[in-house]
Amino acid sequence: MTSHIATEFIHEGRYAAEVDVVLIENENEWSPYYSLEDAEKLESVRLALQCGDLRAAAKLARVFELKPVKAAE
Question: How many domains are contained in the chain?
Answer without folding.
Answer: 1
